[in-house]
Automatic annotation (TrEMBL):
Domain Bacterial surface antigen (D15): 151-390
InterPro entries according to UniProt: Bac_surfAg_D15, TPS_OM_transporter
UniProt organism field: Myxococcus llanfairpwllgwyngyllgogerychwyrndrobwllllantysiliogogogochensis
Pfam family name, one: Omp85
Source lineage: Bacteria, Pseudomonadati, Myxococcota, Myxococcia, Myxococcales
Subcellular location(s) of the protein: Membrane
Gene3D superfamilies according to UniProt: membrane protein fhac: a member of the omp85/tpsb transporter family
Keywords per UniProt: Membrane
Keyword Membrane: yes
Keyword Translocase: no
Protein name, as recorded: BamA/TamA family outer membrane protein
Entry's Gene Ontology BP terms: protein secretion by the type V secretion system
MF term (GO), any: protein transmembrane transporter activity
A single cellular component GO annotation: type V protein secretion system complex
Length: 390
């Protein structure tokens, strides 16, 4: 059931949230008036969330001189078999205010049995892999909204991008008496709002934003929370990220990502696992940081992770009259955490995950299917979702 639903979404249309600029090889963007409407069923799977099912859709309005479109609206309704809900409504205006791009969203996320293993690089040594154990879980709800204004100050073809924005989220927390969260009582146990002022810059030389073969992107991001931003907690976050793509041959690409995220101040525990930037990640552990390790297995004020992928384009074929690329990937992920007041181990004690997977690509749409294994515990995980990891 999962693979047919994924293929349907891949073959029917481009992604609901297109890249910020047309990628090489895509059909020319429409510049006349008119609209496109997309609505698709969606089904994905991960060992952390179980089977996720729902629908995703988008509306694109075109106008003269507006590329790739004048207005884009995307929406998602998603439920998982492990009690996760993830719903959103997003807007994208690539040239709404002169050359500036306006992006905004309303979101609601709810998690039953959200993971909590404590802080640090050696947290919860008694965890044996049971994600339903109430000692290592809590329930979380978090409606939120965000707004971002992004532009290219030196022209539409210059690699420098900068942005400023604001994000607000209100997190509710509920945990059982026997849970680690209740016993440790970290900052944030009461829940509450986290308003963040967002500022960042990117240097983007990728040849393709959604399926790059060459170039790279460097990003520096800052997020600030305090009373002035509508936050119950006062803290600062800094994210440094490097993504690099080296084309080894016509079919082989080496992809590398390095991320360092640092939090300072009165940081609530539910922010320990989050990174900043245009494309946020969770970790350490899970499909967006270190595959093969349970989601958010290690978290804290300072997180670092590395992702290395060897991507191979195996074939190009016609499926239901649509051109599709089939690829394979081998990967090595590494991650580590530092947190004040806890024992983090020696500097070289990183948590690895290894594995491989398949990629199905239709224009700017990418379906990712990964198998990963933790070399520390031997536990294995599977992920089926949309988009490259980086």
């Amino acid at each position: 059931m999962i693979i047919p639903a994924v293929l349907l979404a891949l073959l029917s249309a481009a992604p609901v949230t297109p890249p910020s600029r047309p990628a090489p090889g895509l059909a020319p963007a429409k510049t006349d008036s008119g609209s496109d409407i997309i609505a698709l069923p969606m089904m994905t799977f991960s060992s952390d969330h179980g089977i996720s099912y729902g629908a995703v859709g988008g509306i694109y309005l075109y106008g003269p001189g507006k590329t790739p479109y004048a207005h884009g609206i995307g929406a998602q309704v998603l439920f998982s078999s492990r009690g996760v809900q993830s719903h959103y409504l997003r807007y994208d205006g690539p040239r709404l205010i002169g050359p500036l791009r306006l992006e905004a969203g309303l979101e609601y996320r709810r998690e039953l049995r959200s993971p909590f293993f404590g802080a640090g690089n050696q947290s919860a040594p008694d965890f044996k892999g049971d994600l339903d154990n109430e000692r290592f879980t809590f329930d979380k709800g978090s409606p939120g909204a965000w707004l971002r204004l992004r532009g290219r100050p030196f022209g539409p073809t210059h690699p420098l991008q900068s942005y400023v924005g604001y994000a607000w989220r209100n997190t509710s927390v509920s945990a059982e008496d026997q849970s680690m969260l209740t016993q440790q009582q970290p900052i944030g146990i009461e829940g509450g709002s986290t308003g963040q002022l967002l500022v960042g810059a990117l240097w983007d030389t990728r040849d393709d934003e959604t399926d790059p073969l060459e170039g790279g992107v460097e990003e520096l991001a800052l997020r600030v929370s305090g009373q002035a931003t509508g936050s119950r907690y006062q803290y600062v976050g800094i994210t440094l990220s490097e993504r690099r793509y080296l084309r080894l041959s016509s079919r082989l690409t080496l992809a590398q990502r390095l991320t360092l995220d640092m939090l300072f101040g009165d940081v609530p525990f539910f922010e320990w696992s989050n990174t900043g930037g245009v494309n946020v990640s969770e970790g350490i552990g899970g499909m967006s940081s270190v595959r093969g390790i349970e989601r958010n297995r290690f978290s804290g004020n300072i997180k670092a992770f590395s992702n290395t992928e060897l991507r191979f384009q195996a074939a190009q074929m016609q499926v239901f009259g649509k051109s599709m690329k089939v690829g394979a990937v081998m990967f090595l992920d590494l991650g580590r955490v530092w947190h004040p007041g806890v024992t983090d181990g020696k500097w070289h004690e990183w948590h690895p995950g290894i594995g491989g997977g398949l990629r199905l690509t239709r224009r700017a749409a990418v379906v990712r299917m990964d198998y990963a294994r933790s070399t520390e515990t031997g536990r294995q995980r599977i992920y089926i979702t949309f988009g490259h990891m980086f």
